Each structure stands twice: as C-alpha cells, then as structure tokens.
Amino acid sequence: MSTLPASRLHKPTLTIGIALFAIALITWRDASTMQIRASYGMGADAASYFVAAFLAVLGGGHILAAFRWASEPGQSDWKAVGWVSLGLISLIGTLWLQIGFVAGSTLLFAFTARAFGRRALIADLILGFILATGIFLLFNKLLTLALPMGPFERLL
User: Fold this and answer.
1) What ranges in the chain are assigned the alpha helix state H?
2) 72 Cβ partners below 8 Å, 6+ apart?
3) pLDDT of residue 1
4) Measured at the alpha carbon of residue 55, what is the angle toward residues 125 and 52, in degrees to the nearest 5?
5) Neighbouring residues of 32: CB distance < 8 A, sequence distance ≥ 6
6) Residues in the chain where the model's pLDDT stays below 70
7) Distance separating alpha carbons of residues 141 and 21, to the nearest angstrom
8) 69 φ, ψ to 5°?
C-alpha cells in the first residue's frame, strides 16, 4: 500500500487562488476610483473594499490549500452543477423579466441548497426570501444602491 506525499501542488486550486487575487485587485482598484460618495453611512466604495478583502482572503486560502493538497479530488457532481446552473438561470430570468432581485435570489438560494444535498425546498425558499429581502434592504436603503426591482421591491 503506497501513501501519497504529504505536500503536492494542486494546480487547479492554485489557479483559482490566483484568479481570486486578480479579481480582488480589480475590485479594489475600481473601489478606489469610484466618484460617488455617500453623504452618510457606508458608501458603495466601502462595500467594494469589503468584497475585495473577502476575495483576497479566499484567494489566500486557495493558495494555501493548493500547497497542502494530500489526495486526488473526487468525481465531479454534475447534478449539483445542474442545480446551481438552474439557480443562476432563474436569477437571470427573473431579472430579465423584471420580476425582481428578491425572487431571483430566493430561487438561487433554494437551488444552491439543493445542490449541496438539502431536500427542504419550502424551508429553503422561505430562508432565501428572508435573506434576499435583507440584502435588498441593505443595498437599497443603507448603501443607496439600486438593485433590480420587481413588484415586491416596489412595496418596500
């Protein structure tokens, strides 16, 4: 029985880490050139700096994982890829049909939860709705950024 070396480089994970760092740098640069400043509270630039920092942390984690890879990855779960794809298509469709951000994000959340093996669709739709509504209110009211509106968002 042979054992795998404790430290091998996993190139796909390293590539993802480098790509995340690149996206973080682009996001940071875009945030630094924003002309719109909030007169109170956080502005769009603060949220962009936060996203850039988060992407950089994720990139660092991927790079560390790439150098500490101990085994070969398992088989791809194409059903899960299909569920996430369905969620993204649902989000794009609801935005295109002007149904709104909350409806699209709710479907994206529920279908992504299904991709991770969760089977409680009704509970996931309720939880996704609550999260999407909170995110919409955060961006629309606190950050004063306009997200795509549908009938529900116009009530808020």
Assistant:
1) 11-32, 44-67, 78-96, 101-115, 121-137, 151-155
2) none
3) 45
4) 105
5) 45
6) 1-7, 36-44, 70-73
7) 30
8) -65, 130
* Dist. CA 151–CA 156, nearest whole Å: 9
CB 49 within 8 A of CB 63: no
Length of the chain: 156
Torsion-angle region of residue 118: left (phi > 0), alpha (psi -120 to 50) or beta? beta
Q: Tokens 């070396």 — which residue?
A: 5
pLDDT in tens, 132-148: 999 999 988 887 878 88
Query: Per-residue DSSP letters for 7-47?
Result: -B--HHHHHHHHHHHHHHHHHHHHHHT-----SSS--HHHH
Q: Which two tokens stand for residue 74?
A: 């398992």
